[in-house]
């Protein structure tokens, strides 16, 4: 998958996870980011019914 509109770089994501004690390499973080972008792209917000 190619998400050209990514708002976070691989380096930023690795640094963020490293702050929380999670060590990942470039391949692993690319897979994680693709999964997160795919989930967010397909997420449908629940409709709020108003009275």
**Number of H/I helices:** 2
Fraction of residues in H or I helices: 40-55%
Number of strands: 0
Report the mean per-residue pLDDT as an integer: 85
Q: What structural class is derived from the secondary structure elements?
A: mainly alpha
Which outline best applies? elongated
Oligomeric state: single chain
Q: What value does the Rg take, in angstroms? A: 15 Å
Question: From N to C, what is the helix and strand string?
Answer: HH
How much of the residues is beta strand, in percent? Answer: under 5%
Low-pLDDT parts are: none
Distance between the termini: 41 Å
Largest sheet: number of strands, sense, barrel closure: none
Please describe the structure with a list of short key phrases separated by commas or semicolons.
single chain; 51 residues; mainly alpha; 2 helices; 0% strand
């Amino acid at each position: 998958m190619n998400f050209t509109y990514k708002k976070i770089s691989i380096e930023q994501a690795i640094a963020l996870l490293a702050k929380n004690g999670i060590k990942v390499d470039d391949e692993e973080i690319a897979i994680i980011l693709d999964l997160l972008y795919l989930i967010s792209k397909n997420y449908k917000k629940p409709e709020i019914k108003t009275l």
